[in-house]
């Protein structure tokens, strides 16, 4: 077998270098968030970038023990207390388009919209109106907008303010703000939620769409590990049994 | 890298042989259950062995959608509808000592008990009394006994009858029956449940203890895949949200 | 929380009924393959259907220890020997569009093609020519055709013969045969492989496309459990270390 | 079903409070590492504690693409490119006693050793000698010592210096240093490795043993996500096929 190629980690002779930096240097002079940025981008972040990545990771760390990812991890821990790896992994497996995954779809929409404005030589506002109109016509739900409770999501404001004051804000934030306006006009007012906000900010920081999902996983693992630790220390094995109502065929005999 | 060694599958040149048999021969002349036995044991089963393995796999296939494994799979599918692999895997991750895993522990107990009878030149009844007495003294719960509802588990009777009529019954069934007697005398009457029954039968069929857990996984995947398919076809994304009550510290401000 | 609804399993009072049948009856009078069919379809299979499902499950059980699903399971077992659930689950997680998942895509293509023939009142042959032509024009790879080694896949012939002699063969097999012809004319001769064959057969048996992936998972778990058992019994922990070549940035110092 | 209790997250009315702190406050005034500490401990860390947790997370983030966790994630991504959740989860499933899990075992040993010194009114040095002697007699491998390459692990020195200068060093570091001495005398010189070092430091910070495994998972997810992103962006599907050598029974025919 050919050796695998990688540009991430050089670990020959027990020395470990992450993207060229000796891990021992990073341990004393960088934060974990810096290292996440470094591994994914190849360079250490500027202070504004670090602040944004910290804010995003904190913003997705845990939204409640009953959300699918956390509940899945707790259920797995309830039946299988021997392996915390299994429980945390189970929690991550609940992350998809419908839970924690909107950031990726939204980043793809932003990237396509910004590109379209350039290709068609139209403004971001005009591109946003086209995207919103087409989505409405196609009955397609747009990721990154709307909230069960809030009219404006306070986490969005925090991310956008950090991006603006740090000189990071660019086409991504401009385009999603234009989308919010277009949606309000064409459909109904729907605030940019945390998924939409982190998508816009990560786009402006230069991350590819897949990072919109990966960053959710990285942040959520902070919550999942705490949920699993609480389940194991505070609850009995098998304490969780979901109530079920059978509505299938009546009892019958085999011929 | 050295090639991995395996005695399971020969797949050179696109020919696939499982334990020496061409897969195309097996496809027309064997059952899936035969193939499971073959892969794990190296030989095809006798009819009585096939009947027992079928009965065990059916017996563990699905005990209800609310059990940890099934509920975990459904929760994962609820958040992540893009990957049925992820949902089924999440369900398997809930399988451990406390859920679906008792068979392995019970097989280890049976193997140790049967061995002890030989080593100490005592009867299986005597060995069972010693094991039960020591477990009681040590406050150790014995896997494979007791049922939330039944006084005798009907699935146990089925497995034991099949084993006896098929000439498979041996020291495993004899020892666990002796354990049931000993526990009834020393602690209280506790029926041999499905985990205990399959452990005794698999011991008598010559399987190692780890197969007590693996057989549960193989059988349960039949149920997990059906649970996931039902969740996806019948329910909306994110329909599951577990009710949670917060009882931690009161709201507080950062300094 | 509202109880979950299910039509699969009734497990009130410790009685377990799968799709209406008492599990104890199934244990003595059905095979595991029957039970898989029952859980997914709501009825027990006819003999020809059982034979086909057995053949499909055997056909996908294991294609070699080095394939992604098996290798992933072995690697996980190599680092984490405490949880066979974790290792088997890891193996399942490698199943996707590119490995073991072609059956689902192919079933979707077949369902769409058969539907199109009806809607447009054209023959299956004509529909197949249109699908193949459009795929070629769009540069789209069609799932279910081609094999690294074989000119005709012997497993395909077995499944089709079983389907024909059992009276199961229908539009699915007819359409995929028409596709094979169309592809040979328009692109180049590519045999129907096991994925294409099982897709056609499962379509004719009335299964939905998602079962094309689920059946691979069910069958492959037979192989994954055997691979994990062999890894644990025959190899040392951490014996696997993949050779890696670093080709990223040169060592550098932090400022 | 009774609501689940939790002391971690209060998410009523769309407000999210982690351990009492509003998530929006944390987003602007805390780091991700602070939030990990907060979720697991209930309080924000002091600066020395934050520096230590950052250093530990960085120290375990990635040791090379060929290690079981990273290789497992890449293999899963190779077959299943549709779900990055599945690939990252697969990587976590390789974390166990033999890979990334030594921290937990070592924390248990430290906790037991420190407790024993108190209970038996002996010095930590004396307790360490007893533990090392008993381990040698029992043929038990002690987690946290030894390195394939280094005579002294530079990461250990960094963690211990940070702990000492930050006033965190306590019985944990004292005991493991005593263990290193005892092992050198009784067995042979074996340096405290990263697992042993983080175990001692986390003990002195007041974490329970299970966090020794969870912290590895949290840190390693930074690496796993980067490995998966590189695999998807740089490599073709199914590019990985592990070389395998079959050494089982010869081809044979079914009767």
Describe this structure in words.
- The structure is a homotetramer.
- Chain A has about 260 residues and is mainly α.
- In chain A, about 60% of the residues lie in helices and about 5% in strands.
- The first copy, chain A, has 11 helices and 5 strands.
- Chain A has a 3-stranded antiparallel β-sheet.
- In chain A, helix 3 (about 45-60) packs across helix 11 (about 210-235) and helix 6 (about 100-120) crosses helix 7.
- Chain A is globular, with a radius of gyration of 22 Å.
- The mean pLDDT of chain A is about 95.
- The interface between A and B is large, with 37 and 37 residues.
- Strand 5 (about 245) of chain A pairs parallel with strand 1 of chain C.
